[in-house]
Write a structure and sequence with these properties.
This protein is α/β, with parallel strands linked by helices and 205 residues long. 54% of the residues lie in helices and 11% in strands. The chain has a single domain (5-201), classed as P-loop containing nucleotide triphosphate hydrolases (Rossmann fold, 3-Layer(aba) Sandwich). The chain has nine helices and five strands. The radius of gyration is 18 Å and the shape is globular. This is Dephospho-CoA kinase.
């Protein structure tokens, strides 16, 4: 069981997944909020039934699974709907994440959470790490990755805390504006640091 929990976050398009995978290559287990968020609304789940009851059956695809694009459009154009969805899913996601973190066998475990600070999930971790890039680069990378409009990405960025506030809250920061070699170097340095912190926190016989 991992005694030390790191919270990894960053704005959309910042490269959280890339950074998380670099830590995973070092043998560190990941608990990904996005993966869990998909699990709690998969076909046949309690979460999906509640979403269908609230939004109507047109929020589903022909095979009965969630139409994510349609849901995203609804919640990012209506603040009250976004809050309703958050209130439904966040307790489910939080409970599953904590259970997974407690069962991790690596020296420490990383919770990968896009809205770590926004949803107060930083209270669950021992330390926070922010992956940082500029808002312009966020938009550019997300347009290239997801093939969505700049306006939609700008709405998502606006729904998250500001870059300045995120950096202010961070215990550690990774600058992801450069090359992959530089990114790996930053991850390796932090990994050694977190190993030392985890060792100091582990119970001694």
């Amino acid at each position: 069981m991992a005694e030390f929990i790191l919270g990894l976050t960053g704005g959309i398009g910042s490269g959280k997944t890339t950074v998380a995978n670099l830590f995973h290559e070092q043998g560190i287990e990941l608990v990904d909020a996005d993966v869990i968020a998909r699990e709690v609304v998969e076909y046949g789940s309690v979460g999906l039934k509640a979403i269908e009851d609230h939004f109507g059956s047109d929020i589903l695809q022909a095979d009965g699974s969630l139409d994510r694009a349609k849901l995203r459009e609804r919640i990012f154009t209506d603040e009250s709907e976004r809050l309703w969805l958050n209130n439904l899913l966040h307790p489910m996601i939080r409970q599953t994440m904590l259970s997974s973190a407690k069962n991790a066998d690596s020296d420490y475990v990383i919770l990968v959470v896009p809205l770590l600070f926004e949803n107060g999930l930083d209270s669950l971790v021992d330390r926070t790490l922010v992956v940082d890039i500029s808002p312009d680069l966020q938009i550019q990378r997300t347009v290239e990755r997801d093939n969505v409009s700049e306006a939609q990405i700008a709405n998502i960025i606006a729904s998250q805390i500001s870059r300045e506030e995120r950096l202010q809250k961070a215990d550690d920061i990774i600058d992801n504006r450069g090359e992959i070699a530089d990114l790996k170097e930053q991850v390796n340095r932090l990994h050694q640091y977190y190993l030392a912190l985890a060792a100091s926190k582990a119970p001694h016989d």
